[in-house]
Amino acid sequence: MPFEIIALINEGYAMKKILVLSVVFFLFGAVNIYAQTASKYGYPVSNKYNAGASSLINSFDLYFSEDYMHYAEHSVNGTNAPLEPAGTTYDNEAAKLPGWGIDISYFNKKLPVYYELNLSNNAGKSNYSGGLTCNGVPCGYASDTDGLMYLNYGAKLGYVFLFNNDQLALIPNVGYEYIDWNRNVINPDGSSNVEHYKLDHWLFGIIAFVKPLNYNFWAQVYGYYTDNYNNSMNRYSNTLGQSITYNLGSGNGYTFGGKIGYEAYKNKNFIISPYVGADYIQNKEGRSNNIYYPKGSYSWEPQDQSNQLIFNLGIKVSF
Known about the structure:
This protein is mostly beta strands. 10% of the residues lie in helices and 61% in strands.
């Protein structure tokens, strides 16, 4: 089965995601209606010629990125010992993935509610090395990939606090993201396996915008704790025509990042700011269940950890 076809989201799984996001957007709308009817007070609309931190929030961001990713699979302490000695590393993967992303955020000035939508996609080729393990014994080795895709989309909801005459905005928020991650692993004997990860993450964090009045420079920093749950990995053998799905254990992670921008053009209605940014992301997924085969053999997915260093170059249009 071609890598491009495997990369498409399973129809049933997609319907579940659409339902979840529909509920989220319904709640967003309900909060927005309440915000406009329950409060007569709010933050004044800023003149864009002399705008503060709040003027950066209502915005559309388009950016291009370079994702330096490292992935590794490790044994788990006390699990299946001595077949899985603690600290054993099974597989390693390194990749440089170019890509793009879109962020849309909105700030309700009646009641300062914050909304954000995200979409990003990075794709390329990775250097994959390691072993396929059966009953704790290496039974094959992978050496390369001919395709790797990392699709991420999500939403956030928060509340805006302004300080120091609108020079600082702090936004505690919660969010959800879905990651669709695919790789096509090429083995030395010419066989290949398509691996398709479906990852659900809840995000808990804070965003800060800093914009000194009467200056054109601005900064944005953010940090998140990630709770990973309900994750799976499907492996399809192109050679054997067999598909196996592993239910991955729960995990966690974190994200830190920031942007620095310059208001290159502004009028009474909008501001255009080129910016540079960087993110560091770490996520861990737990060991999967065992999949049993005839004659007593079985396989599993070890605990894994991914680390990403991402550089961004983009344009922010603030309204």
